[in-house]
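Sequence only, no structure available. Ideas?
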Amino acid sequence: MSRKSIKEGSAKQRNLRANLVEAGGWYGAAAVLLAYALVSFDIISPHGWIYQLLNFTGAVGVLIISYMKRAKQPALLNFVWAVIALVALIQLTL
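Reply:
I predicted one. C-alpha cells follow.
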C-alpha cells in the first residue's frame, strides 16, 4: 500500500467522522427543540420517557459537536443538561 493511498484513506475517515459529528449535532439540536415543543403544546408529559430521552440524546449530540469545535460554554451547558436528563431517566425506572 502506497503512502498516497494511506493518506487518502485517513482523509476519508476524517471526513466521515466530521460528517457523523455534524449530523449528531444537528440531531441534538432538533431533539432538544422537539422535546420542548412537544411539552409546550401538551403533546407529551415532561415526566415521561420520551421527553427525557429526547433531552438526553439531544444534549449528548450537541455536547459532542461543541466539544469537537472547542465551544466550551455550550459543551458545559449540554453536559449538565444530559446529566439532568439521565438522572430523570434513572428515576423513571425506579
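Residues 3-93 form one domain.
Hope that gets you unstuck.
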